[in-house]
Amino acid sequence: MAFLAIHSINSYPAHWHLNAGLEIITLLLIPYRYWGALLVGEAIPNAYEAWLCLADFGSTWVALRMIPEMLLCMPVVWLYRSKLNIFPTKHLVNIKALLTCVLIISIVLSAYSCALVSTLHITNGPYRHSPMLAGIYLAGNYAGLLTLVPCALIVRLDFRKGRFHERLKEIWSSSKLLADASGLALPVIAFMAWIAGKSEMTQATVIEMAMLIPAAWLTVRHGWRAAALAGTLIIICNGLLQPDLPTTSNVVEITFALCLAVSGLYALGAKVTAQNLRNERERQGVEAEQQMVRQNLAVTERRMRRAAEKLEFVAGSLHIANNRVLDHMRRIVPNIESHAFYKQAMVAHEQVYQLAESLHPSAWRDRGVPAALNETVARALDEAGIAYSCHIGGRGFTLLESSVMTAIYRTACEAITHVTSHLTCSRVRLEVRAGETNKHRWAVIRVDGLMDHDDVARSVYYSEQRRDLGVKLGAHLASIEEMRSQAQVFGGQVHVRATSKHLRVTALLHSQAAEVRQQKASAPLRLWVN
């Protein structure tokens, strides 16, 4: 039925041989066990069409014409499917093998058509046996194959059993390809074809070749699916523009040039898709590495928190034990000077407590990151003689995941340590702002240090406390480059801006929640090139 339908539409094989495309599609996609049924299915209508021409062309022509073209194509398709690996996997097509297979089948069918014409012994007219007639048949067969085969393979790859509705949703959601194809490239190609149909031969040739420009643009942007859409439309427009039986070499040359150019677009689209897939895999690999680093940071932070809690417990136990020892010593030696021993015990207790605070502040554990930024950091800077102010704002700060909150505190401490390492820094302002853009949450940390050259004496007076500021805040990164590397783990970046009056460190961090990562992931791509 499909053979008869196409034959009724396309009755001139030399013009645009769509029957060849139908035959190769069925041979490529249908299992070997049904090839016999396919052969019978084509042989019956083919014999009927040939028998109707018995009175016009003779028995020799009819005998050759009754040979189904599918029978001639079967050895070539079997060779490429079984030996030359045209389908490396179930959902992968080797574009090089596909194009060479299409070309060889075109040559075989063209030789068959020329053999049919040679039996008629025509000496004049368009059907006389000549190299031009062979070129016409070759161009028509190649154009017919390129019209149907790539689109059929798209359907075979994308609309597998059980994924039809899912794939339709993916295509509809991929608005970029849909918008570029239906809104720009395909209408431009159709408009140029309409202009070519109204123009003279020379102008029409130039316009037809210019149809490749929007097709190439669409291919470079979206890969081989775009090449299949635009290339098929170009070949269809060319087939509709050409006469039923080309009689000039220009028509054959145009058709050949367009077919070769479209083949090149398929190869280019395959390379673009392969590169996109490679980039997608690299992106997923980077995200996996970042996720692993974030998990390691979270595990390290939990260990530091447990260690800080244990140290606070040890500090309390040490304080109680020292008090008991001093009480016993007073009973044994009433006149002992216990003030010095008590002072040493308090110093030891304070050192242990400060160590616990540097590992993980108690304000953070009790009341969250905002409390640690407002209290713990403020106390450390106050002990170093540096004025401090903190502002936390924005939308969705409390909705950030715990790893991002940890990164905010650690990044702020690192930036403050870097800014206060300059003796001229007399004031620090910390601003933390959270927000959400296109359902992607982010946080910005900005540390602004005021440089006052007239207050260096005060900084020298507090030099020891300023030197220990990094230890109190738990800062361990030695340079801005290390801070940038840590920010990249959260998909962010760090900027430093220095003037004579200010030193500003700005960090951007992105939330990497599971739902956000799922939204960022692009549609799966299938490689169409070996």
List keywords for this structure.
530 residues, alpha+beta, 5 strands
Give the topology.
Elements: H1 2-9, H2 18-29, H3 35-51, H4 54-65, H5 69-82, H6 95-118, H7 131-158, H8 164-173, H9 175-198, H10 201-210, H11 212-222, H12 224-241, H13 249-332, H14 338-359, H15 362-367, H16 369-383, E1 387-394, H17 402-420, E2 425-437, E3 440-451, H18 456-461, H19 463-467, H20 469-473, H21 480-489, E4 493-498, E5 502-510, H22 514-520
Helix pairs in contact: 2-5, 2-7, 3-4, 5-6, 6-7, 7-12, 7-13, 9-10, 9-11, 9-12, 11-12, 11-13, 12-13, 13-14, 16-17, 17-21
How much beta, percentage-wise? 5-15%
Instruction: Please give the alpha-carbon distance between the first and last residues.
Output: 35 Å
Share of helical residues: 55-70%
Label the structural class.
alpha+beta
Low-confidence stretches: 513-528
Main beta-sheet annotation: 5 strands, mixed
Annotation, overall tally of beta strands? 5
* Element order: H for helix, E for strand: HHHHHHHHHHHHHHHHEHEEHHHHEEH
Q: Give the averaged pLDDT, no decimals.
A: 81
Oligomer: single chain
Strand order of the largest sheet: 1-2-3-5-4
What is the overall shape? Answer: elongated
Based on CA atoms alone, the radius of gyration comes out at: 39 Å
Number of helices: 22
